[in-house]
Amino acid sequence: MEASPIRCLVSAGPTREYFDPVRFLSNPSSGRMGFAVAEAARAQGWEVALVSGPVALPDPEGVRVVRVETGDEMHAALLEYFPECDVLFMTAAVMDTRPRHRSPHKVKKDRLPGVIEMEPATDILADLGRRKTGQTLVGFAAETENVEANARAKLVRKNLDFIAANEVGVPGSGFVSETNRLVLISRDGGREVLGPALKRELADRLIDRVAPSVARGREGRERP
């Protein structure tokens, strides 16, 4: 009997956290890295679901795409697919804070507050790390300093199997660039530099490096 395809879940793009119906806080993530990972996984014959924040990219062919906007919407969509997936690539740049209060109506200019009170947003990846039952979790860390140290701490804190770290704010790397450079760090202490290269090429390399762990994790989940 032919084995079913590996089930891959990918998050991509930014999230938006609204202050009122027309104003929000966000970040410049283009979604390109996540879409590239989804395309690379599909090219491997995997079954792919892509949960994307607001980006200006077409749906990858053969990929189930769920469009969301806020962090809570992304969290809910990922929770729907996560229990049955074999691997999650969390490339989305989720806002980690949000306005404590959201006005139901547009706030007029003369009534804008001098300070917007903020609160922590849901840590989606940490929540999924607590829920995992053999899935391979691949996180991403966009950093501006102490890149690898911060990434390693995130890997442990969020119960990940791999983390791909990159330095944002440098030429050829980060949110809006078509290229990137990743340092892939594994739970067992492995470290490999991928790139600089086009994000689609990096996605292929990333899938190749992670695939053996995905296969082992899947075998463990399916074993009686």
Question: What does the model show?
Answer:
The protein is an alpha/beta fold. It has one domain (7-106, 116-222): Rossmann fold (3-Layer(aba) Sandwich). It is 29% helix and 28% strand. It is built from 5 helices and 12 strands. An 8-stranded mixed sheet has the order 5-4-1-6-9-10-11-12, sandwiched between helices. It has a two-stranded antiparallel sheet with strand order 2-3. The longest helix is centred in the last third of the chain and has 24 residues, at 199-222. The radius of gyration is 18 Å and the shape is globular. The chain starts with 6 loop residues before the first strand and ends with a helix. The mean pLDDT is 94.
Instruction: Report the strand count.
Output: 12
Number of domains: 1
Order of strands side by side in the largest beta sheet? Answer: 5-4-1-6-9-10-11-12
What percent of the residues sit in helical stretches (DSSP H or I)?
25-40%
CATH architecture classification name: 3-Layer(aba) Sandwich
CATH uppermost class: Alpha Beta
Under CATH, the homologous superfamily reads CoaB-like
Keyphrases for this structure?
single chain; 224 residues; alpha/beta; Rossmann fold; eight-stranded mixed β-sheet; two-stranded antiparallel ribbon; globular
Concise overview:
The chain is of the alpha/beta class. The protein has helices at residues 32-43, 71-81, 124-131, 147-157, 199-222; strands spanning 7-12, 17-20, 23-25, 47-52, 64-67, 87-90, 97-99, 118-120, 136-143, 162-167, 179-186, 191-198.
